[in-house]
Structure formats: C-alpha cells, structure tokens
Amino acid sequence: MCSPIKPYCIMPLIIFLVMLASPCILEQRCIAGSLPEGFTDITQAIPSVVLDIRYFGPHNFVGERVDGYLGPKCIITKKAAEALSKVQGDLKEFSLSLKIYDCYRPQRAVNHFVRWAGNVNDTKTKKEFYPGVDKKNLFRDGYIAGKSGHSRGSTVDLTIVPLPVPDQEQYVPGQPLQECYLPAEKRFRDNSVDMGTGFDCFDEQSHPASRKVGVQQRMNRLLLKSLMERYGFKNYDQEWWHFTLRNEPFPGTYFDFPVE
After folding, report:
1. Is residue 15 part of a domain?
2. Exposed e or buried b for every residue in 131-141, given b needs 16+ CB within 10 A?
3. Which amino acids are annotated catalytic?
4. 55 burial level (CB within 10 Å; 0-12, 13-18, 19+)
5. pLDDT tens digits, residue range 152-166?
6. Strands 233-235 and 75-77
7. Which of 57, 80, 241, 256 is buried most deeply by CB count within 10 Å?
8. Is residue 110 included in any domain, yes or no?
9. Helices 215-230 and 78-92, interaxial angle, to 10°?
10. What's the total number of domains in the chain?
11. What is the rounded (10 degree) CA torsion for 191, 194, 195, 198?
12. pLDDT tens digits, residue range 40-96?
C-alpha cells in the first residue's frame, strides 16, 4: 500500500483528478466524439444547412488545409446554433438556405494564418483572394490578426443559396485563379446568390456597405444582414459574410480544440 507521504504515490492521483475535471486539459484533442460544454455540431440544430468548409480544403487564401481542421464540420456554440436555426426557418419560406463557410476556428488555425501572412514570398493565392492588397499590409489593413472572434465559438461566415441547391464548382489545386471581385460569371463559381464578391475577398468591395457593387448584390447583402440581425447577430463592417452573436456565451475565451 502507498504511503501518503511518498510523492510518487501522490502524483498519479493528482493527475487523475485533474484529468477528470478537465477532459481537454492538454488542448490537443478532446475525448473522441465529445465537445466542450456549450458547443454543438450545426447539423444537429439545422440538418438542412449547406456546408462549404473552406479551411478544411485547399481553396482558401492560405492555399492548403488549415491547422486544426480535421473534418469538414461547423462546430458552434449551442446558443449561436439556436439563433441560426431561426434564420434558416425564415429563409426556407422563400426556398432559400444558409450556406456556411466557417464557424468555430481553433486558435492553432489563427496561428497558421499569422505564419502564412508573415511569409510575404508566398503569394500563390494572391490573384483570387487579395489581388489589390500587398501581402505585407494584411496585418495593417485588418485582414489578419493574432486573435479571432471565431475562436470564441459564436462567430460564423456564411451566405445564402437557393433551393434546390445548384451544383457547386469544384476547385482543383493549380487551376487558374480569378479575382474575387469580378462579376459572378467570371470569378470562382460559388453556388450562392450573388453577393458581389467571393468569400474571403480581401478588398473594399467586400465591405457590407460598399457602393462599388451592384444594386442586386447590395439587396442580397441586406437580406442576409437583416435576417442575421433579427436573431441577434452583428455584422463585421469589412466582410459581408462575417457575423457574431451579440450575447455570445464565451466573450473572453479563445478555444483551441480541433474541428473533427
């Protein structure tokens, strides 16, 4: 029997108790199939939602799968998911649906963005995603930062698609890229309604209030913004696709568990 005064007997018990209290204590991987309290897979709340998780694949401004994305899933706080289900309900009345590009984003993914932005010689995705911006200015201009609201779990990047959902162009690595602010028929053919630019377009035309896009595109943005605001979200003033729940449940916590 172990003596209570011997450290080598006490330490295993302490470690065991700490692990019971914090199943994600190492911030590397939670128990398979589990999520931190307060989070859910969006398909549990909205089975009909359309997913196009860009950071799981190579069609994004980094040009490769981003750290922390181990599956093409949208993980989000339950509170945000409940609000989004109301938006989806309103859209379905008009044969429309939400399409989601990104939800919760691990801090390790944000770190990946920062490393990429620091390598100013890697410009293989410039023509599509930041054609009018010098890469060395991505931090200065607010396109890349060391922290993201996505890591708090209640921020989502999304758009609207018609129902039935049209076919989506499949990105093939190495294919010719087109500027993200070109007319819809000339840029990458997303199957969403036309918002005036592609997703993650680092350009002033992506600002929700930009007058550089057409009337129909501004109306489409207004529809999305109005519905999201109706159910408690606020829009980021540089990205028409970016919304954060106003009363988010973890306003000061930046999580780092993987998306899987």
Report:
1. no
2. bebebeebeee
3. 239
4. buried
5. 999 999 999 999 999
6. unpaired
7. 80
8. yes
9. 130
10. 1
11. 50
12. 999 999 999 999 999 999 999 999 999 999 999 999 999 999 999 999 999 999 999
Rounded to 10 degrees, what is the CA torsion of 109, 110, 114, 119? 20
Lookup: tokens for 86: 């109301």
Rounded Cα distance between 226 and 229, Å, is 5
On whether residue 1 sits in a domain, the answer given is no
Q: Are 249 and 154 in contact (CB under 8 A)?
A: yes
Q: Rounded CA gap, 9 and 59, in Å?
A: 52
User: Are residues 245 and 79 in contact, defined by beta-carbon separation less than 8 angstroms?
Assistant: yes
Which conformational region is residue 208 in: left (phi greater than 0), alpha (psi within -120 to 50 degrees), or beta? Answer: alpha
User: Is 250 within the bounds of a domain?
Assistant: no
- How many Å separate Cα 113 from the centre of its chain? 13
3-class secondary-structure state, position 121: coil
DSSP state string for 137-185: GTTTTTS--S--GGGGT-EEEEEEEESSPPPPPPP-TTPPP--TTS-TT
C-alpha–C-alpha distance, residues 97 and 88, integer Å: 6
What does the alpha-carbon distance between residue 143 and residue 135 come to, in Å, rounded to a whole number? 10
Could you tell me the residue range of the domain that residue 141 belongs to? Answer: 31-245
The amino acid at residue 8 is Y
